[in-house]
Amino acid sequence: MADSQTVKETDIAVGILRLLETEKVVTEGAGAIGVSALLAGCLPELAGKKVACILSGGNIDSTMIGRCIEKGLAVDNRLVRFEALISDRPGGVAELSRIVSETGAKIKAMAMGFVAILISAIKERAFHHTEAFNTQCKVIAETRGIDHALELNSSLKKRYGTDCNFFTIRGPLV
Question: What is the pLDDT of residues 84-114, one digit of tens each?
């Protein structure tokens, strides 16, 4: 092969994640680029062939590994985001948590109503065109992949209908 390939940063994050998960190998982005190119399908002429990739460079700090893991999980649809308009009365969050739990997904982060530290110092609920006793809840959830994410989306849509918007790293999931 006399040509060169470009590998996207998101694909490199997936390569680093795969090496960590399957091979228990820590490598920086440049060291994982060969594996990343293969996983991303950048080298179709090598499909089905035995290929050796040189893994070099372990000079990656823990915060970068964390970002690569999160980005890799998001690209794999194993980290998804949704927003739902839930009841602001007792039990509203519990109901949402139950729906997520019943699908086997895991809530990684949640923000509701007054998110002054994250977004602004204004209560968001004042600007929603909804009943006074509802609040917007934003959730990041961990799934097993796209099929599981679709199952979670379906369960949420059954309960919240159009008051629920589901997103993957590639955009809204309908």
Answer: 988 888 898 899 999 999 999 999 988 876 5
Residue 149 carries which side chain, given as an amino acid letter? A
Residue type for position 107: I
- 35 and 90 fall within a common domain: no
Q: Which of 45-59, 92-106, 111-125 has the highest mean pLDDT?
A: 92-106
Contact 100, 149 (CB under 8 A): no
Whether the CB-CB separation of 57 and 87 falls below 8 Å is answered with no
The two beta strands, 106-112 and 171-173, are unpaired
Least Cα distance to 169 among 147, 146, 151 occurs for 146
Picking from 35, 50, 74, the residue at the C-terminal end of a domain is 74
Q: 33 Cβ partners below 8 Å, 6+ apart? A: 7, 12, 15
Element (H, E) at 166: strand 164-168
Reported as a pLDDT band with limits 50, 70 and 90, residue 169 is confident
Is residue 55 domain-shared with residue 111, that is, in the same domain?
no
For residues 57 and 5, what is the distance between their CA atoms, to the nearest angstrom? 20
